[in-house]
Amino acid sequence: MARADEADRLDPLKAFRERFALPEGVIYLDGNSLGVLPAGLSAHMKDVVEQQWGERLVRGWNDAGWIDLPARVAGKIARLVGAKKDSVAVGDSTTINVFKVLSAALSLRPDRRVILSDRNNFPTDLYVADGLARLLGQGYELKLATADEMEDAIDENVAAVLLTEVDYRTGRRYDMAAMTKHIHDKGALAIWDLCHSAGAFPVHLDAAGADFAIGCGYKYLNGGPGAPAFLYIAERHVAHVAPALSGWMGHQTPFAFTENYTPADGIARMMVGTPPILSMSSLDRALDAFDGVDMALVREKSQQLCDRFIAEVEQRCPELELATPRDHDQRGSQVSFRHPEGYAVMQALIANGVIGDFRAPDILRFGMTPLYLSHADIVTAAEILERVMRERLWDQEIYRKRAKVT
Length: 406
Ligand SMILES: Cc1ncc(COP(=O)(O)O)c(C=O)c1O
Ligand SMILES: Nc1c(O)cccc1C(=O)C[C@H](N)C(=O)O
Fold this sequence. Notes:
About 40% of the residues lie in helices and about 15% in strands. It is of the alpha/beta class and about 400 residues long. The protein folds into 2 domains: about 1-30 and about 295-400, Aspartate Aminotransferase, domain 1; about 45-290, Aspartate Aminotransferase, domain 2. The model has no long low-confidence stretch (mean pLDDT about 100). Its EC number is 3.7.1.3.
């Protein structure tokens, strides 16, 4: 613990912990599923509800700037993902945004019929891709490959490659720039799911040459449960994209209420319906926790926390098998271990104050969020995990009973 304390003393990010309202007695290693509550956010929401909504009522759209809120939030996210402000739109869920960008990508490659994805991708991406292929008919199909097979699987029939940069189970990370280049060399378009990237480390969409991206607001961005998601379209494509979900909020003049649809000039065309102002306000306020944060430092500390956790757990719990790459370049900001009783182990760990999560079939998953985790937290979490394993605290019926949400 002495070395962890010394690392904390020297930690250039330690002051940022105050930007979060963390519950007592819990070490939270699940910011990759649901981010924590930022300090001051409750008061902000009280104001939004009571003053903006309660007092201003419908005038809030203009007086409180609600109508421009999605664009303001997009600007904050754009910085974190290495995009121009006008390349990002905020709204809907990641799932809906997968549909929106994938249909857009296919329309830009009308002569090709294959959507390629990773067979270990988060299921919603695969379900949507498959559903869209079935909806379009005409020979469209979803093909799957493993990460190791991916490069070879891209051929002249592939219109778009839909990849999640960081694997939600193992934390394995694609090299976005290199893979995007390879995809382009084959004439296809690259769509990146940044659910486990945005807010976790620096992302450079423009520099990597990405065509499209999507990501969620409630994990590392701390926007709150079900917070709005975002999408990205490279500047060079925006004007050529005809939105499949041609909603009135993406119209050039929504309040002209015209009979025919004309898309807005820029990225605003990807908006669909009325923005959810309460959750959008929450995300807006949450993003302020990144003000002045050097994401390169976040990455550096994230890797230190991952290394420390791996070393501590491997030494204390030999029965757990590391599922995350050891190489920094090949992983995101999480550490996963396998154990056949992973679900029960995680429930016992949670009952003892360390919150991670479980992903079927056997993954214990721990998210590293450098803005509010200390090196000492990591050692304490490993100590508690050691006790859960050594004393077989997990070996009880109550911990085997699966909850609806894991
Ligand atoms: C990689 C990835 N993509 C998509 C999603 C789904 O997003 P949503 O349920 O918010 O639409 C998640 C998590 O839920 C995810 O981890
Ligand atoms: N979106 C979630 C939900 O509504 C309930 C429970 C978990 C989630 C998640 O975000 C899961 C997450 N995408 C994952 O990586 O497993």
